[in-house]
Amino acid sequence: MHSIATVECELDYVNDTNQVMEAIFYFSISADSCFDNFEAIIGTKVFKGIIKEKEEAKEEYIKKKEQGKTVAYAEIDSELKDTIEVINNFDNMKESIINIYFFK
Fold it and tell me: pTM of the full predicted structure?
C-alpha cells in the first residue's frame, strides 16, 4: 500500500458535568485508509495508543476504568469497518482531545 497522505483528525470535548464521564467518539475513514495510531489528551495527561489484541485491550480498558483510572481505548468498528471508535473516561471539568492518525 502506497500512502499518499497522512491524516490527523482532532476532536475536543469538555466534560462540564459534576461526574466522571465515559465518552464514545466515532471517526469515519474511507475503506482504502489504514488506521495508524491515536492519542487522547485528557486534562494534562497524554495517552498514546499501543496496538494490542482487541480483547486484551478491551479487558484492560474495563479493568482500569473500574479502578477509577483515566483511560482510553480505540478500535475499528467490526461491523462498519470504515469507522474508528474511541472510548475514554475522564473527570469532571476536564477537556478531552482525541487525535486519530491514518494513512490514505
Answer: 0.74
In this model, does residue 19 exceed pLDDT 70? yes
Q: Residue 58 is placed in which grid cell?
A: 478491551
User: Listing from the earlier edge strand, what are the strands of the sheet with 83-90?
Assistant: 21-28, 83-90, 71-76
Decide if pLDDT at 1 tops 60: no
Contact 21, 89 (CB under 8 A): yes
Let me know: does 100 contact 4? Beta carbons within 8 Å.
no
Q: Is the CA virtual torsion 36, 103, 42, 19 positive or negative?
A: negative
Confidence band of 60 (pLDDT split at 50, 70, 90): very high
| DSSP secondary structure letter of residue 95 | E
